[in-house]
Each structure stands twice: as structure tokens, then as C-alpha cells.
Amino acid sequence: MRIDVPAINNEGIVDCFSVQCMRFENGNGNCLVTGVVGNAIAEMVQVALSVIKSNYILLKIDKKIINEFDFHVHFTNGSIYKDGTSAGLGIFMSVMYSCLDENMRKYVEGKNILATGEIDLYGNVLEVGGMKEKFSIFKERQYDYFLVPKLTDLVIDDDRIIKVENVLDFIQILKKLK
């Protein structure tokens, strides 16, 4: 699975970067963040991890992964400065993917997903701006799915757009990615 996040610069130009996550045994739940990122992105990584750690049972994650693994979250495309809370949903999806067992990974294996939306500590996906521009890059680059906040001004009839209200519905979200 590949998770990309759209970014809009000050001139209104839209580009994308990937969010990659790996987990490592013999750790204790720490997280390393790399790539050209600002404070808002780094904070979204911490929010995503907090949501996952506090809801591991609901999200069907082995407690051992939460307590005995470290995570490395990397943001690609160094030419794009990344600093916005709208990357939260993509970050959550990438970290969650690294926590999944093989039975759950089958739902998203080989999928290219674009995701945008801020998340809060309760897992709510909050509305973000620039949806028209972000939708245009979704179409242009032919992603398989576009995950967006449920509360969005984007009104497009496309089965590949999945509106997400709360990331704690992760299992149901995965099952929509056929």
C-alpha cells in the first residue's frame, strides 16, 4: 500500500508526498520522524500514535506491537516543505498499516491511496481546505482511492472517494478498499 498526501504551497501549486512507516522489534514504542517536515506534521505523527496506542484493542492491534516496537515515519519528496495538519489522516493510515497482520493487509495490498484530513486525539477526521485542488491531483495521478473528511465541501460522485468521520472505523475503511 502506498499512502500519499496532497500539499498545496503558498502559490497554490499542488504536489504530493508519500508517508512511509516501518516498525522495529526490540523497542519500547518510540517514534523517529524523518523528511523535510515542520512542527504541525511532527505533531500529527504523535496524535496518530496516541490514537492508535489508546485504541489498540478496538483497532485489533497486538499489544506487543504497541509496547515492544519502535516506529520510523518518513516523509518523501524532500523538495516539498511539509507542515500542515491535513496530513493527519495519511499519517494515521501509514502507521496503522505497519501495525496490521497479514490477514488485514490483504485489503490494501498494492493500492495507491491519496488521503487528506486533520485528526484529533479522539480519532475524529476534521475538515481541511483546498479540496478542489486536492481532488484535481487525485484525478490527474489516477489514485485508486481518495480518503477525505466526511465533513467536506467536496461534492463529487465517485466511488473511489471515501469519506471518513473517525479513524477508529479503520477496519470498515479497509474493507471499502476493494
Can you characterise this structure?
The chain is α/β, with parallel strands linked by helices and 178 residues long. It has helices at 39-54, 63-68, 88-99, 102-105, 131-140, 170-176; strands at 2-8, 14-25, 31-34, 69-75, 112-115, 118-119, 125-126, 145-149, 161-164. It has one domain (2-176): Ribosomal Protein S5, domain 2 (2-Layer Sandwich). 31% of the residues lie in helices and 26% in strands. The chain has a seven-stranded mixed beta sheet with strand order 3-4-2-1-5-8-9. A two-stranded antiparallel sheet has the order 6-7. Strand 1 and strand 2 (14-25) form a beta hairpin. The two termini are 12 Å apart.
Brief summary of the model shown:
By secondary structure, the chain is α/β, with parallel strands linked by helices. The protein is 31% helix and 26% strand.
Give the SSE map:
Layout: E1 2-8, E2 14-25, E3 31-34, H1 39-54, H2 63-68, E4 69-75, H3 88-99, H4 102-105, E5 112-115, E6 118-119, E7 125-126, H5 131-140, E8 145-149, E9 161-164, H6 170-176
Parallel strand pairs: 1-5, 3-4, 5-8, 8-9
Antiparallel strand pairs: 1-2, 2-4, 6-7
Helix pairs in contact: 1-3
